[in-house]
Amino acid sequence: MKIIIAGAYAIGTYLAKFLSRNNQDIILMDESQERLEKLDSDFDLMTMHASCTSIEMLKEAGVASADLFIAVTPDENKNMNACIIAKALGAKRTVTKVDNYEFVAPNLNDFFQHLGVSSIIYPELLAAEDINNGLKMSWVRQRWDVHGGALVMLGIKLRESCEVLNRPLKDISGPDDPYHVVAIKRDGDTIIPGGNDELKLYDMAYFMTTRQYIPFVRKIVGKEHYVDVKNVMMMGGGRTAVRAVKTMPEYMNVKIIEADEQRCERLNELLDDDRALIIHGDGRDVSLLQEEGIMSTQAFVALTGNAETNILACLTAKRMGVRKTVAMVENEDYINMAESLDIGTIINKKAIAASHIYQMMLDANVHNVRFLMNANADVAEFIPQEGSKITEKAVKDLRLPHGVTIGGLVRNGEGYLVSGNTRINAGDSVMVFCHDMNMKKIENLFNK
Q1: pLDDT for 228
Q2: What average pLDDT does range 334-356 have in this prediction?
Q3: Domain that holds residue 292
């Protein structure tokens, strides 16, 4: 597949590096030679010093034969124009990053398609959805829903209170049990478990279950004592914070601490529905946190543009008794450190945006692709075609590639866990967990 990426910034470089490892034909173009030179030489991709809105440069890049054109510069107008030109020159599909929430309204899809923009991503909205998913369940690090929660994957940090530690999975998670453990992250390694594997203290375990059995999973992992989140304190009042507050459940009360006085005034204008109390101050100030009620706060969300500040602020909040913390960490070098410090939920906008772009590469009917950065894995919802290989045999006879497991499926709106004897039907929504391999290798199972 030939892919042209315009913009060697955070999302563009992250996506280019990832896709180059998956043996894609990648061209990364940017107007700054300096940004292009920062890319490591061991990545298999071509760089091009050029403007993405130049017709001649796009022709030279071979946009007429491009399967996917992705515009992710900081300028949404340039991104839009680049996609319109690329589509007119022959690119099959185009993706643009925008900063204007108005552009992602569902009723505008046909309008932008007509212009030549196949898909629009607004990273702050995607990040806000992840934040709110984490806040709704204070005892969960990551949550991934299929069909509105008919099937749910829960990433949970295991503590001493977990009831199912040090026992073979075949004894605690058989075909008739209401959950499956689809992956385990332990000491930097990801394990696709078999029946003889065990859950250990401080593992990050990924459970697949159906909606009605979430309370059961909560009980066996010993998280019943975690209080539900009602009071939330945010540090940083950027676009992600605004989108998170606007889409937050109504029962949550929010305080936003913002250091910039002018931004505070703007936040009061944007959030004029009394959804949040805006506080001018430094979120790292312990006395301010105490004054604003940190002791009665169930969740602390750090969303400044500085990863170190967010991590340290979450550590401070934890030491002051806050159970649930969320940190935005855009610097990849700090993600493992944040995990080792037991920060809580990690939000990385470029990885979230890349997940949504990645699913456009896949030929099968694929939805909801997510990168699990701390597990070096992808999760995706595949819909098999009539006559596809995945529908021909029971799961145990499919000989799935190493590193791939099927956690569950949704059929006629109902979620079901998958066992070895399960037969997958065309039209099912199938949850596939894929560790350390190219998801393109397994999509043929779902195609005719």
Answers
A1: 87
A2: 83
A3: 227-322
Tokens of 118: 């196949």
Domain-located, residue 367: yes
Sequence letter at residue 180: H
Q: Assign residue 386 the CATH number of its domain.
A: 3.30.70.1450
314 and 390 both lie in a single domain: no
- Residues 403, 311, single domain; the answer is no
Number of domains in the chain: 3
Helix (H, G, I), strand (E, B) or coil at 250: coil
Predicted local distance difference test score (pLDDT) of residue 187? 84
Rounded mean pLDDT of the chain? 88
Helix (H, G, I), strand (E, B) or coil at 149: helix
Neighbouring CB atoms inside 10 A of 226's CB total 16
Number of Cβ atoms within 10 Å of the Cβ of 421: 10
Predicted TM-score (pTM) of the model is 0.82
Element (H, E) at 432: strand 429-435
Whether 281 contacts 257, CB under 8 Å: yes
Could you tell me if residue 144 is inside a domain?
A: no
The Cα 127–Cα 311 span in angstroms is 17
pLDDT bucket at 116, cuts 50 / 70 / 90: very high
Which amino acid would we find at residue 411?
Answer: R
Of the candidates 157, 143, 139, the residue with the CA atom closest to the CA atom of residue 324: 139
Position 126 in a domain: no
Token readout for 398 is 């499919």
At 364 the pLDDT is: 45
331 backbone φψ class: left, alpha, beta (φ>0; ψ -120 to 50): beta
